[in-house]
Amino acid sequence: MVMVILFFIIFNSAMARARESRIITDMAGRKVILRNNEARRIIPTFKPVTLCILALGLQERLVGIDTHSKKDKLTRAVFPGVTQLTGVGTKSTGINLETMLSLKPDLVILYAQKDGMSLATRLETMGIPAVIILPESMNNIKRSLDIISRAAGTPQNASSVINAMDKTLNLVHSRVATIPKQNKKRAYFASSRSFFNTAAGNMLQDNMLSRAGMINVSHALKGYFQDISPEQFLAWNPDIIFMSRNLNTQGFKPIKNPALKKVTALAHQAIHRFPSNLAPWDFPSPLSVLGTLWAACRAYPEYFQDIDFTAYANDFHRVLFQKDLVEMGGRLDDQLPKEIQH
């Protein structure tokens, strides 16, 4: 009789745990088992995840954070408590597994590149759920938001963010969809690494330029950010140039090179720097839809004369972060550095 009772106790306990468990599929195709109804101790390991978490309103559940995000102006404005969180390292220099384990997370969100997959496997063997996201297109940013919110046990949180993104993308599409292919501007994106480093066709920046009604001259490149030669840049002869928000002043110097003056974009001074001073809009996060709208406005101003861009950006930030851009000390700040202006 005692054995029968014991069996039922064990069986019911196992059934209760099974009911509490959830399974989601991450962007690497991994089946991730989450033992609790909600994740309450979350660690993001790179900035795109942190920005998604802020947009989803989950910042109070963070117990650690990627070290870069501790210094991020937007993160500090939305969530001042970030300065008190433990930094766990960065995607570029490495994540400190020991530090991460000491924080006892119940959800870790990782990147697909570098050691992200191996870290996820190691955490899984230790009983810590880890999901991988790859936000390298608008659709994948929306998928990332959905996966993060479901992993956290708050699937309802993603809808308002995704709706705001769709509203902006639909606005852009409604204005540029009728531009004939022969009239579309050929655009070049200079990454944060250098002027002669650009985005391949499978990257977010390519998707942004395409959605903004332009043709990315580097679309045929494969991989991630790729170095190109000045000769290739000349051969592409873009009509318009967009600079990454994080390209430093040294990276702007090729603009002043006399040998490049015959490039159409430089001859017509069609050179623009992505906003904003709080967080880059040419970066994988929900804010990239604002970057898409901004780029379309710069390329085709005649199609967007009715748009008060600062007001639109204020409204968008308020939906995502409950504070508007200006309220947080933000501004477009999209002018080229004075020392390289014509």
Short description:
The chain is of the alpha/beta class. The chain has 13 helices and 15 strands.
What does this structure look like?
It holds the Pfam family Peripla_BP_2. This is Iron complex transport system substrate-binding protein. Residues 41-304 form the Fe/B12 periplasmic-binding domain. By secondary structure, the protein is an alpha/beta fold. It has 13 helices and 15 strands. The strands form six sheets. It has a four-stranded parallel β-sheet with strand order 12-10-14-15. A three-stranded parallel β-sheet has the order 3-8-9, with helices on both faces. Helix 7 runs antiparallel to helix 8 and helix 8 packs parallel to helix 12 (288-299). The longest helix has 19 residues, at 2-20.
Give the helix/strand layout.
Layout: H1 2-20, E1 22-25, E2 31-34, E3 42-44, H2 47-55, E4 64-65, H3 67-70, H4 73-78, E5 86-87, E6 89-90, E7 94-95, H5 97-102, E8 107-111, H6 116-125, E9 130-133, H7 138-151, H8 158-176, E10 186-190, E11 197-198, H9 204-211, E12 215-216, E13 226-227, H10 230-236, E14 240-243, H11 264-267, E15 271-273, H12 288-299, H13 309-321
Parallel strand pairs: 3-8, 4-5, 8-9, 10-12, 10-14, 14-15
Antiparallel strand pairs: 1-2, 6-7, 11-13
